[in-house]
DNA sequence: TATAAGAACAACCATTTGGTTGTCCAAATG
DNA sequence: CATTTGGACAACCAAATGGTTGTTCTTATA
């Protein structure tokens, strides 16, 4: 099986984004995370697994509870990519500006 | 069918991210975009459609060619969400810092 | 100790996704 | 005019996705 898990795919799902948002206020166990979502705890656990696999959240056992904590440093990959794309995109306009200034004379 | 197209889902696919990167250097037609990807032009056209539907690229007819241009302002939604999540996440540490300073005395 | 609660594991299911091929049409080009 | 070329449309397919239920196991708790 090819490990296709990446951060971009992880944040693509709205439920997972909600989980991240919820966890950004502080660590919670799986049951707590699942509250207020209209889906089964098992479904939540699957989302948690995906988020964990790509490093967005970390897990720690505490008695019978599995405590999840956000590790949002992993989101750098996303902002880096957006920033890089936009940098190139903006350079395009700068080149056009330069061209327009040169031909104006 | 529910319109589930959003920017997060659009950038989840690596091929689509490559397309965006390619277009951030300047507009291209569908055939040009498809070059160097090992997949069919039809597959590329489908990706283009998705990117267009969520506003990341715009299309304009030019003779028989369909010219695609990046509209990376739409990526704000992504950076905004990441920024907001991280803001909350950092506040968590600030609260902890405050607590530690207060109890140290 | 009996029971409730947190979570893992597995099997299953419908829908979506990312890709394919084939046909067809309009616009360039020899 | 004949032929490429750019692209649209449709049908189809395998795999992935997001969800379900049922069982089991361990840890708390009344």
From TrEMBL, chains A, B:
<dbReference type="InterPro" id="IPR036390">
    <property type="entry name" value="WH_DNA-bd_sf"/>
</dbReference>
<protein>
    <submittedName>
        <fullName>Transcriptional regulator, ArsR family</fullName>
    </submittedName>
</protein>
<feature type="domain" description="HTH arsR-type">
    <location>
        <begin position="1"/>
        <end position="90"/>
    </location>
</feature>
<dbReference type="InterPro" id="IPR036388">
    <property type="entry name" value="WH-like_DNA-bd_sf"/>
</dbReference>
<dbReference type="InterPro" id="IPR011991">
    <property type="entry name" value="ArsR-like_HTH"/>
</dbReference>
<dbReference type="GO" id="GO:0003700">
    <property type="term" value="F:DNA-binding transcription factor activity"/>
</dbReference>
<dbReference type="InterPro" id="IPR001845">
    <property type="entry name" value="HTH_ArsR_DNA-bd_dom"/>
</dbReference>
<dbReference type="Pfam" id="PF01022">
    <property type="entry name" value="HTH_5"/>
</dbReference>
